[in-house]
TrEMBL record:
SUPFAM superfamilies: Acetyl-CoA synthetase-like. It comes from the Eukaryota. This is AMP-dependent synthetase/ligase domain-containing protein.
Amino acid sequence: MEGLKIRKLVEEHNPEKPALIVVSDQGIIQQVNFQTVLNVTDEILPFISQNITSSNNCIGLLMDKNILLPSIIICLQDLSQSFSFLTPQTLAESCNRLGIKWLLVLDSKPSSNVFTFTQKLRLSIADELQLWEFKGVPEQIKCYENVLCTMQTSGSTGESKAVRIPFDCIEKNVTGLKYVAARTEFNF
């Protein structure tokens, strides 16, 4: 995949520094350093590559806020796969419209009966990643080459639309933010 490589940006940081911190009003709930993000990515990579053999797919992510998301996104980028966040309420419709054949699930099984459980992977940080396959044939098979993700929006019409976000649209922003952050007092 051309352009931005998230893995490279993560590798440039001190591996022991916090990469992700989950907090509540009670304080820090969970913290993961840059090395752990890359280690979990390397755990997930063979799991996905052995089960999803074609590239340039859009993989559905059915998961709420989770500390594993950066690892999953890096892995999908390494494998030339795009992703779209999905909700249980519109799962089958979204998969059909977006041409999503595969679903990664962290929390629980999909409530829709249009998916078949394929595999699960127990991760070293105690979460279980599940892979589900769409039973039907999507309305259209779409190519997601050089697309980071697809976001769903209703825009101003109230009618659901999908917007593909290519890497080159965000690459300059991410690179620019990296240099701005390097000049600030807070050292990432």
